[in-house]
Amino acid sequence: MTDVAESSTSELAYGRTEWDDYHHLPTNTGLTNEKITMWSFLGSDCLLFGSLISTYLLLRNRVGPATSGPTAADLFDIPFTSVSSFVLLMSSLTMVLAVTSIQRAEMERCKLWLLTTAALGAIFIAGQVYEFTSFYREGLGFTTNISSSAFYTLTGFHGVHVSLGIVMLVTMWALVSGGQLGPERAETIEIIGLYWHFVDIVWIVIFAVVYLIP
Amino acid sequence: METVAASEEEAHEEHHDHGLSDVGYIKIALILGVLTAVEVATYFWDFGILEVPSLLILMVVKFQIVVSYFMHLKFDSKVFTYVFVTGLILACAVFAAMGTSMVFWQNPSGCDLSAFC
Amino acid sequence: MALTEERPEILELESGDTSASTGAFARPTNATGWRAWVFTVDHKKIGIMYGVVAMFWFLWGGVEALLIRAQLFTPNGTVLTAEQYNQIFTMHGTTMVFLVIMPLAAAFANYIVPLQIGARDVAFPRMNALGLWVFVFGGIFLNLSWFLGGGPDGGWFAYAPNTGVTFSPGAGMDFYALGLQIAGIASLVGAINLIVTIINMRAPGMTMLRMPVFTWMILVVQFLLLFALPVITVALILLSFDRTFDANFFNVSMGADPLLWQHLFWIFGHPEVYILILPSFGIVSETLPVFSRKPLFGYSVIVISGAAIGFMGWGVWAHHMFVSGLGPVGVAAFSATTMFIAVPTGVKILNWIATMWGGNLKFTVPMMFSVSLVSMFTIGGLSGVMHSVAPADTQQTDTYFIVAHFHYVLFGGALMGLFAGMYYWWPKAFGYKLGESLGKWHFWLLLAGFNMTFGPMHILGLQGMARRHSRYGPEDGFDFWNAVVSIGAFIILIGMIVFAVNIVRSWLGYKAGTVPQEPADPWDGRTLEWAIPSPTPEHNFDYVPVVTDVDDFWHKKYQPDANGKLRKIADGNAIAQKGDQHPHLPSPSYWPIVLAAALPLIALGLIYNLWITGIGLVLLLGAMYGWSLEPATDPDAGHDGHGDDHGDDHGPDNHDPDGSNEAESVTAEEAPVD
Ligand code: HEM
Ligand SMILES: [Cu+2]
Questions:
Q1: Eight-class DSSP state of C516
Q2: What is the ipTM of this complex?
Q3: Distance from the CA of C481 to the center of ligand 1, in angstroms?
Q4: What's the rounded Cα separation, in Å, for the pair C624 and B71?
Q5: Maximum distance among all alpha carbons in chain C?
Q6: Which of C265, C339, C387, C407 to mutate to test the pocket of ligand 1 (most atoms within 8 A of CB)?
Q7: Is C496 part of any domain?
Q8: Closest CA to C354 of C299, C283, C417
Q9: Are A18 and B62 within 8 A, CB to CB?
């Protein structure tokens, strides 16, 4: 442990490079923090819906002792739900078109597609409201039996996700209209698009597993 | 759908960052629409023993298409694939085990499906 | 990296001079006083606040523990009624897990990780503050139950239907379900933030396999949180719906299956126990090499086994349910996976022992705590393997043997590691060391008290003493060991008082000048946090450190000479950065705490009156919009004109209309890509 070379310290000291502007530092992966955030969140949401869907599947036929009414599956209106599923599916297309148009700096078109996407989402939600009310009229309340609790919780959670997505889309539309969000922030729209598509794929699973598989 | 995908991919080799053209996306949406129609058809016609497997396969294919193309995962950084697919696989594995355990294993004398199916 | 050669103009930022900007209200400006803490977005202050709040709850959880021990001191104890006893042990467990160990780990993660990877802050500083305040309000909310009709009384794992309204009619379980939900939001926010920080904000040259082990373990833990929290979120939602809206998920008279709750809870619960222990594993993986003066034995093995534990931790949850009627196939399968998971855990222990083997051991206080983690955790791990043998577990489950197991892993493991971390990093955070001799008193009292408290529980458990019973009879033959246990608990209390005295004395001494100011590198450390002054300057690093090795700082100090003998070539304190630059920092913000305050309101309303929920929701929405309209960095605070509100973006500006971005791809190539 001899000879602590003082002279070499400046060579060895950390700091051969300067801090560039902190907010515009390159990231290790070259990806933005926001996008990694969204994908991580979606990975997490997989387990949220995984829990909800498996809970529903385990409970869907439990109606308890004689008194307890129909299951949700007894009341499904497949043609109706097929249409609303299709609407949600197509909203993924319009979403993707909103992203490509803002990437090309076509702001008017982007606004149009954003609104269309939100509108298609709203149609889906309206369909769900209609479905819930008609089930309720047919005697399937939230507390009727285990099956009904599980059904409303699962589809309700998905509905909340869609509604949040609509709020975000409308906000984006307002920002684009007001000029606060230009093509340089196309990635923001893309990230919200990721969320929207995810909500769509969850419905793809719900539609098949909950509605179609007998 | 593979062919559409493949040709589109070639067209976009240069900037593979951003996936397909608008037309490409519309084609993808058409495919998704057709697959959905097939799914719904199982409701109107009897597919017998094939019904459940075919619905599951269609579901997975649709899922895959939306994730790969609409969500760009196919063209994007692998980091995104890792975080997302980890969650997806964990969810599938864990809940498959939980479901199996609750439906089949709980009753050693066999499956008491009557309570569930 | 697109790094400029000449030094960019360094912008002065005295946080005092920030002024009103795009947000709806003026931004907070005070750099001193309480405002400097409450509205801060600085990861170091946030880390310290996590620690302070967690230690407060530790005090409260300790009081609960002592009440339990007072009750069980003698047969037929009369300190608590059975109802009170249920509430106290439930809240003891819940507090210690969710309000003490998790936030203490969050304290270290927040403070240390950005320093270890050479970053100036985390990826999203405001979200970091949000996580803190949500946790603070969640803890307060949970404990409000004491004043509003009694605490939750269903055990920390809250088995439904026992926790339904039928069997637990008070509001306590509602506070539990909603309070944990709030705490979960805090952890999720923090988890995503740290994941992004670690993936994206490492210093140039620091590849994943050059990252310090503590940072690695924190990364694994954040992924566990990311994927485990949604499961308990769903379980708690189902429970809340049952209790609040009369849903039927756990209504057995309707044909519910009680195992559903158990599965969901433990699918979360087992990853959770690794969430609790892995940060401490990370801490001792830092301290043992430093105080053995040897590199960590098998760096990559430790990292990989940590990640393996993270994965395997998902496949063992039903070992908590061996006697629940799982069926023989399930029991056999989960018994086998549980035995396997002991393997990567054992690998780590062997690596730590090999690290110390032949080392030049320095028994400082952090080292003593670290060694006690290695030994005490091993005892707990071994009793864990005993539980994995299902027939044996049938005898042990729900007895004090289990209580002994999880206290050896949680107290002897997690908590000992966290104390090691406190003594180790205290000079970095505050500029002075905690007193050595009082620290040793603290350590020995804690170690003795701990073993006296939890060691005999093994015996009691095997004798058949059930856990969670408020009384035992004189004829049971449990009195002797219970008395020993209770005395042990009070010795722990004395140890903790010594700790408090130590903190106060060291601090007063530091103020008075009798406790020395520590230099940048007081322990001859190995990682980047020691390359900057103590206490850490507000902006962390003057310059981006460039990393070429694992334990980079060490290699800057020691190099092999011509004969291959390791020689000291530089003094850590001399080569450390000086902390004399004043770069631009993220600005403080009101919104995190406002947004966080909305959550307990929403939850209270769900229990008492939906109008309160409405008010909470309005506040929530307002805060969210206020937040998103406010740029992460105050543009008026002196900046280079990039004052556009691009959220909390600390990454590159991907501001390219068509996404084909030349500059970005250059960046991506030159920055370390893993
Ligand atoms: C070597 C690895 C480990 C094995 C094989 C193991 C095994 C087990 C088993 C089989 C049980 C269930 C016993 C029963 O209820 O009948 C159990 C309970 C428990 N373990 Fe572990 N364990 C290990 C490590 C850990 C760690 C690292 C922690 C936390 C830091 C932990 C915390 C707990 C807790 C809190 C319980 C009790 C839960 C309760 O019933 O309240 N274990 N362990
Ligand atoms: Cu476990």
A1: P
A2: 0.90
A3: 23
A4: 26
A5: 82
A6: C387
A7: no
A8: C299
A9: no
